[in-house]
């Protein structure tokens, strides 16, 4: 069964739970995301609240158009959010969440910076991001330089434990494990797709609550599959790799990937990346493919197509415009590249979202 490193508290209440602490902490200490989702952030932003189907919609002041923050609470310990807003000035919030859990975020656009104790501040780039909460406070700053778009899930440990226990499944998944996950375990086209599907269910708040619960477990299962495959690969194929990736190599490769992710449309040249990694271009190409399972050029193409998924999920750009924006000479080349990565065409993806 699942092993959780911290104390577990399971509430029998459903959906939106009352704003109260579940421990002996002094009143007023800590933040209540476990019980109320983004309610406190919404209050800080001056939002108005509206219940809608299975969710709660928070709207920023009316003078700021096309802004929302939507929460869905399918089960205690599971909170799903879709955010689409522009701020007139930066807002910072300190999170002090007692309950252990994972925050998975499919980040599409905006100026958002996370600062955890003992770590460098991290400005989010487009992609999937993971934060592991073990009771230490952290700060998120929401900037005002551009619109902020993301879909996120708080998946608390007691939700995972209860879900697996109720089904008598024995799957290894701990917070300690999640701390060691490299980003390529969860930064995959499959997870981007799952989050894009989840986004519209959250935004419209019209799906059965079971849909959200199952979709989150599908996301965790996809990550677990990556973890298990990596272990198999390490055990049986390490000797066959052209170059073994040392821990020091990995640190350089993480830096290389970070530089690529900063602007996937105009990534650094391989020569520039090799200088960052302090190695030759041939060695960098070998180690990158050995560690990430894809060439540098292949990774750039993959991430461009993940970016395309997010662009296609909004109907304000045509396929031809997206093709041009991503640097493809004609829509047919873009369609072929997109289908090679995702297995379906841009038009088919939009049709699946009824756009």
UniProtKB/TrEMBL annotation:
<feature type="domain" description="HTH araC/xylS-type">
    <location>
        <begin position="254"/>
        <end position="352"/>
    </location>
</feature>
<dbReference type="InterPro" id="IPR053142">
    <property type="entry name" value="PchR_regulatory_protein"/>
</dbReference>
<keyword id="KW-0804">Transcription</keyword>
<keyword id="KW-0805">Transcription regulation</keyword>
<dbReference type="GO" id="GO:0043565">
    <property type="term" value="F:sequence-specific DNA binding"/>
</dbReference>
<dbReference type="InterPro" id="IPR009057">
    <property type="entry name" value="Homeodomain-like_sf"/>
</dbReference>
<dbReference type="Pfam" id="PF12833">
    <property type="entry name" value="HTH_18"/>
</dbReference>
<dbReference type="GO" id="GO:0003700">
    <property type="term" value="F:DNA-binding transcription factor activity"/>
</dbReference>
<protein>
    <submittedName>
        <fullName>Helix-turn-helix, AraC domain-containing protein</fullName>
    </submittedName>
</protein>
<dbReference type="InterPro" id="IPR018060">
    <property type="entry name" value="HTH_AraC"/>
</dbReference>
């Amino acid at each position: 069964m699942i092993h959780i490193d911290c104390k577990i508290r399971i509430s029998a209440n459903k959906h939106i739970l009352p704003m109260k602490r579940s421990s002996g902490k002094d009143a007023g200490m800590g933040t209540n995301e476990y019980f109320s989702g983004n309610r406190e952030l919404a209050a800080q932003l001056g939002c108005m609240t509206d219940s809608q189907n299975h969710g709660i919609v928070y709207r920023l002041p009316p003078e700021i158009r096309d802004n929302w923050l939507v929460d869905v609470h399918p089960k205690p310990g599971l909170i799903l959010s879709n955010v689409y807003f522009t701020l007139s000035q930066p807002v910072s919030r300190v999170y002090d969440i007692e309950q252990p859990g994972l925050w998975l975020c499919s980040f599409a656009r905006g100026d958002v910076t996370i600062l955890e104790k003992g770590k460098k501040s991290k400005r989010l780039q487009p992609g999937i991001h993971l934060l592991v909460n073990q009771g230490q406070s952290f700060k998120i700053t929401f900037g005002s330089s551009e619109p902020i778009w993301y879909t996120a899930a708080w998946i608390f440990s007691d939700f995972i434990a209860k879900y697996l226990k109720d089904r008598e499944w024995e799957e290894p998944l701990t917070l300690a494990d999640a701390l060691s996950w490299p980003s390529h375990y969860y930064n995959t086209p499959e997870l981007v797709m799952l989050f894009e599907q989840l986004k519209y269910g959250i935004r419209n708040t019209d799906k059965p609550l079971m849909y959200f619960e199952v979709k989150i477990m599908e996301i965790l299962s996809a990550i677990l599959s990556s973890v298990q495959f990596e272990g198999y690969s390490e055990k049986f194929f390490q000797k066959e790799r052209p170059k073994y990736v040392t821990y020091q190599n990995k640190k350089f490769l993480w830096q290389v990937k970070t530089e690529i992710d900063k602007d996937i449309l105009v990534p650094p040249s391989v020569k520039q990346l090799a200088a960052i990694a302090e190695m030759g271009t041939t060695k960098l190409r070998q180690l990158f493919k050995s560690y990430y399972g894809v060439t540098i050029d292949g990774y750039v193409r993959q991430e461009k197509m993940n970016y395309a998924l997010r662009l296609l999920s909004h109907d304000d750009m045509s396929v031809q415009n997206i093709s041009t924006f991503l640097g493809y000479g004609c829509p047919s080349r873009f369609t072929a590249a997109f289908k090679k990565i995702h297995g379906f065409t841009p038009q088919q993806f939009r049709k699946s979202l009824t756009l």
